[in-house]
Amino acid sequence: MKKSPFILAILMIALVAMPGFSQAKLKVLFMPGVADPFYFTMEKGIRAAAAKAGVDLSVAEYPKAWGPEYQVPILQAAVARQRPDLLLIAPTSTDALKAPLKAIYDKGTEIITVDTFIGDGDYSKASDYSFPLSYIGSDNELGGRQMAEHLAKLVGETGKVFCEATNPDASSVQGRVKGFTAGVAEYPNMTLAGVEWCQDVQQKAQEQTLAALQKNKDIVGIFGTNVFSAQGAYQAVVNAGLTGAVKICSWDATLELIGALKKGQVDLVLAQKPGEMGSLAIEWGVKYLKDNSVQVPKKIIPGFEFFTRENVNDPAMQQFIYQ
Ligand code: T6T
User: Is CB count within 10 Å lower at the N or C end of the chain?
Assistant: First the structure.
């Protein structure tokens, strides 16, 4: 029997109103920076929030090394496959990711940068990188300054310190080094012996730290700016037999660094909140996609925690160790 257009329209409205009728789900893609415990923890936060929001989540292949040359091809293939409504990405370079991300945005994908940003991260002013909805991550410069203060206390505000870093074009590490350098400069009896860049390769971080210790026998403290640089740095100090004599402040709360803190091989560990960065990115992105009049804050900073030997076994602190 042929139904009139009027009856068909009534049937459609009734069907859409029925509980359980599913409209197409929003598609979200997560593009991490590199395979490491920080981003694995972020993925957990994203997965939990995505399940709660009922979105269709894809996670791009984890780049095996840090840098746009590894990240961009994976990103472009994943976007071509999924055509996401929302992309959550940790850009591995402040400049090199601008154009690829703009091209993705121009084809209709909203973007939130998590952990790292493009340009100077200020998406509120007119520029060629102001298209992302938000930057959700740490205040790395502030963290770098606080690491300088902690290290200064540990070394009695006197002596040479060294910084092991990763990539100069990653916004996160740029901020940490900038804050640390400015922080150390506030102590008249302290000097920065140098900053080395390991390209996020732990073995290289270990070798560079060892070379710095051999060149400057009077180094009293080291700041390791992320997982691989901090792990390489403390290993070098252990191998050189300088545990305890050279104080170490490390950024990122991996099981290995927390273990080293307990053993006295590291003196302070800063924990970022990658899980929270991820869940907030899903929550804000989905809110915006459902209602474009929602004002998404251009910067969201979940903050961080400090592990010391005094609090490392506190039950309340365990949630901040990366998974
Ligand atoms: O420190 C994190 C992250 O914040 C940074 O951008 C890159 O390195 C890590 O993933 C740790 O390895």
Answer: N
Whether the CB of 94 sits within 6 Å of ligand 1: no
Full residue range of the structural domain in which residue 174 is found = 140-271
Q: What percent of the chain has pLDDT over 70?
A: 93
Whether ligand 1 lies within 6 angstroms of the CB of 33 is answered as yes
Pocket test for ligand 1, best of 180, 226, 301 (most atoms within 8 A of CB): 226
Atom of ligand 1 nearest to the CA of 137: 4
Arithmetic mean of pLDDT, 134-163? 98
- Does residue 129 lie in a domain region? yes
User: What is the structure's pLDDT at 26?
Assistant: 98
Predicted TM-score (pTM) of this structure: 0.93
CA-nearest residue, atom 10 of ligand 1: 38
Distance 86 CA to ligand 1 centre (A): 22
Judgement on whether residues 146 and 266 belong to the same structural domain of the protein: yes
Q: Is residue 318 part of a domain?
A: no
Which of 141, 227, 276 has the most ligand 1 atoms within 8 A of CB, as the residue to mutate? 227
The pLDDT of residue 18 is above 60: no
Average pLDDT over residues 280-296: 98
Going by C-alpha positions, the residue among 88, 65, 56, 57 that lies closest to residue 75 is 88
The residue type found at 81 is R
More confident residue, 4 or 318: 318
Q: What is the CATH number of the domain that holds 128?
A: 3.40.50.2300
Residue to mutate, 252, 276, 320, ligand 1, most ligand atoms under 8 Å from C-beta: 252
Q: Average of pLDDT values for 222-247?
A: 98
